[in-house]
């Protein structure tokens, strides 16, 4: 939904949506009663898709855009990739792109896609006594397969990992955006409008305080933290998390998770007023990914979620409170959707799109673009050949 609103914000008419979640489908129709709406794309032919979009068979399509289910590639999940039925929807989406043959296609997905293998081998079958990983089992194998499918279909492919905060979103959400060009050219990167501290003459990142101001507490819907967590939240201020608790309480607060690896930055986490939000998740009260209000002893509300994702206050949501959190949490930040839309409009009008800022840090991670990906894959293959 965020992609659609972002595209429409810059003047792109969205003719068709594909959605399988029942509550989200009803939300779409509540807000856009005249849009074409289909379900599982595995069940629709190209001619049926054109029919629902009201696009004649002889009319060219400017853009196909979407974010196929990402759980199969998420760094927080099992990462079964294309072996997961949700991953197979990804392959169907690419097939539909090649069949519909639009001038441009855009695929949005999670950071985990950059490192997901094409074929998953369980960790219990790796290492001593087992053969080395094949190229399909290597990190990035799934993305390499996607690129090859698109290139074989005649499309030029570029991609990068983009932090939505660099495009005006009050949220540090990182998403892979793949731009596919039917003319075979490799499209330049999106153009940032914001930077953390106003570097490069850009606007500063937007903050939580900036976007949630004015919301009345009585009008908000939110789930509750259990009392055992509230005990610790009462000791934390804006921008703090479990490590800011008194040292004698830290182990007690985290329990067995205290001994787990990683930074555990999502535990007992209050948002800061003066920074963008972390990535919104589908439930703000899950222990490892808490999203607490900066000062109130509660999770972020549905209405605060909407403001952070930049949905208009007039947007109607169907379903219970968990459905609402899920719909907004799964959305693409509207500013990122608008940035993609502007980029495509420039390409469609044959404008020369130059990267105004060389070596801009689009993400907090390194080696995330198609340039880096190709270099690393070639290096890995060479090392295996020489081994």
TrEMBL record:
Keyword field: Methyltransferase, Restriction system, S-adenosyl-L-methionine, Transferase
One Pfam family named in its UniProt record: DNA_methylase
EC number from the UniProt entry: 2.1.1.37
InterPro entries associated with the record: C5-Methyltransferase, C5_DNA_meth_AS, C5_MeTfrase, C5_meth_CS, SAM-dependent_MTases_sf
Domain of life: Bacteria
Class in the EC hierarchy, top level: transferase
Catalytic site positions: 70
One GO-annotated biological process of the protein: negative regulation of gene expression via chromosomal CpG island methylation
Entry's Gene Ontology molecular function annotations: DNA (cytosine-5-)-methyltransferase activity; DNA binding
Leader sequence segment: none
UniProt keyword S-adenosyl-L-methionine present: yes
Catalytic activity: a 2'-deoxycytidine in DNA + S-adenosyl-L-methionine = a 5-methyl-2'-deoxycytidine in DNA + S-adenosyl-L-homocysteine + H(+)
SUPFAM superfamilies xref list: S-adenosyl-L-methionine-dependent methyltransferases (SSF53335)
Family stated for the protein in its record: Belongs to the class I-like SAM-binding methyltransferase superfamily. C5-methyltransferase family.
PANTHER family (UniProt xref): CYTOSINE-SPECIFIC METHYLTRANSFERASE (PTHR10629), DNA (CYTOSINE-5)-METHYLTRANSFERASE 1 (PTHR10629:SF52)
Name this protein carries in UniProt: Cytosine-specific methyltransferase
Source organism (scientific name): Candidatus Saganbacteria bacterium CG08_land_8_20_14_0_20_45_16
């Amino acid at each position: 939904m965020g992609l659609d609103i972002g595209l429409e914000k810059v003047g792109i008419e969205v003719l068709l949506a594909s959605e399988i979640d029942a509550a989200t489908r009803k939300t779409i129709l509540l807000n856009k009663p005249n849009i074409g709406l289909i379900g599982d794309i595995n069940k629709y032919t190209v001619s049926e898709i054109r029919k629902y979009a009201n696009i004649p068979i002889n009319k060219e399509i400017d853009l196909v855009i979407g974010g196929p289910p990402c759980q199969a590639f998420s760094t927080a999940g099992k990462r079964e990739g294309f072996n997961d039925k949700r991953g197979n929807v990804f392959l169907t989406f690419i097939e539909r792109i090649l069949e519909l043959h639009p001038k441009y296609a855009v695929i949005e997905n999670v950071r985990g896609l950059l490192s997901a293998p094409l074929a998953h081998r369980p960790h219990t079958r790796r290492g001593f006594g087992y053969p080395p990983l094949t190229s399909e089992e290597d990190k990035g194998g799934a993305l390499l397969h996607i690129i090859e499918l698109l290139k074989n279909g005649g499309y030029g492919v570029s991609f990068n990992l983009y932090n939505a905060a660099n495009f005006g979103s009050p949220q540090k959400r990182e998403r892979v955006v793949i731009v596919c060009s039917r003319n075979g050219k490799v499209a330049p990167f999106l153009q940032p409008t914001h930077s953390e501290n106003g570097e490069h003459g850009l606007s500063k990142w937007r903050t939580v305080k900036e976007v949630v101001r004015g919301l009345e507490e009585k009008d908000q819907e939110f789930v509750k933290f259990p009392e055992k967590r509230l005990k610790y939240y009462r000791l934390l201020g804006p921008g703090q998390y479990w490590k800011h608790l008194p040292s004698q309480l830290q182990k007690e607060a985290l329990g067995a998770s205290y001994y787990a690896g990683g930074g555990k930055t999502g535990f007992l986490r209050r948002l800061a007023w003066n920074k963008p939000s972390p990535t919104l998740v589908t439930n703000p009260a899950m222990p490892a990914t808490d999203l607490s209000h900066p000062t109130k002893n509660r999770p972020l509300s549905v209405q605060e979620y909407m403001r952070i994702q930049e949905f208009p206050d007039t947007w109607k949501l169907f379903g219970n409170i968990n459905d609402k959190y899920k719909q907004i949490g799964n959305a693409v930040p509207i500013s990122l959707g608008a940035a993609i839309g502007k980029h495509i409009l420039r390409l469609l009008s044959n404008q020369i799109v130059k990267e105004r800022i060389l070596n801009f840090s689009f993400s907090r991670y390194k080696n995330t673009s198609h340039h880096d990906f190709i270099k690393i894959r070639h290096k890995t293959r060479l090392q295996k050949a020489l081994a």
